[in-house]
């Protein structure tokens, strides 16, 4: 009986280790930018907003990446996507809109989606705001998040290219671990 328990434990640890490594490789495979200005619409996925409407480091990195791209491609319109969490005093979308406007992006290029509370909702609710014929989009998020975001967007019939914002070092380990669990859940339940 004791040998059986040890054998099963070793098998479970081995399987868990392999799953952890595989999910990490899946995340890394999509962690680089490939957007080239060919998509007319960009979606910036929301992230934590601190008290007073201050973007978290992750959100600020996404916004900095988006501003540079939008400056280089003035024909691209942008959806800022993110609702208000219970610990946020403003919607993520309103904070993103304000940031973009303060950094020279014309308000006429910005579409606000402020109801979503998850990555899937970010994409699904944003899709409702785009012209029906829109197929190709650019997604902006932190590098660790792009695999899952791309997978979900493709499940909504989008063709996707991505802009990878750098993940702040102070939260990178925690976010990459959490993203593995989120990616596994997405693969299992589909959203």
UniProtKB/TrEMBL annotation:
One of its GO terms (cellular component) is plasma membrane. It comes from the Bacteria. Gene3D superfamilies: HUPs. The chain crosses the membrane at residues 6-23. InterPro entries: Cell_Envelope_Assoc (IPR051599), DUF218 (IPR003848), Rossmann-like_a/b/a_fold (IPR014729). It holds the Pfam family DUF218. Signal peptide: none annotated. GO terms for biological process: Gram-negative-bacterium-type cell wall biogenesis; peptidoglycan metabolic process. Residues 41-172 form the DUF218 domain. Keywords: Membrane, Transmembrane, Transmembrane helix. This is Vancomycin resistance protein. It comes from Lysinibacillus macroides. The lineage of its organism: Bacteria, Bacillati, Bacillota, Bacilli, Bacillales.
